[in-house]
Design goal:
By secondary structure, the chain is an all-alpha fold. The chain has five helices and no strands. Helix 1 runs antiparallel to helix 4. The N and C termini lie far apart (46 Å).
Length: 151
Amino acid sequence: MMEQIDHKSWKSWSLVSLQFICLGIIFISGPLLADRIYLLIPELAGLALGLWAVAAMGRGNLNIAPDPLEWSRMVDLGPYRFIRHPMYLALLLTSLPLVLDSFTVFRLGIWLVLLATLIYKMGYEESMLLAKFPRYEGYKQKTWRLIPGLY
């Protein structure tokens, strides 16, 4: 008998799949490192931010799906002190320089789909974090969603 797929799980994995498809297209349709130094610097900054965010989150708390794990804890250390979604910012900072370095309208369109997916995914993830962690609302008031001082 086929198991029924829960709506939240389907939605979460659809968002993750779309995110990975966009990143995959960007990574295979051009170089993996920007040639221009002014683009390489933000790309490397994005990689560093991603590593910092993963280290702050801890191995047991890491989940590629936006759903909080049953045993997860709320993280407000490292880059999470300033922004709520540093891994998403890391993906955007790493991929945008690649698009700009080997620019095509198609690649920009894929990056815009990635951006829209991550913005939607942030809202979806935050609704689940609010339900799981009572102090998340206060954390939201003290931090920026993605870009300090802007959004």
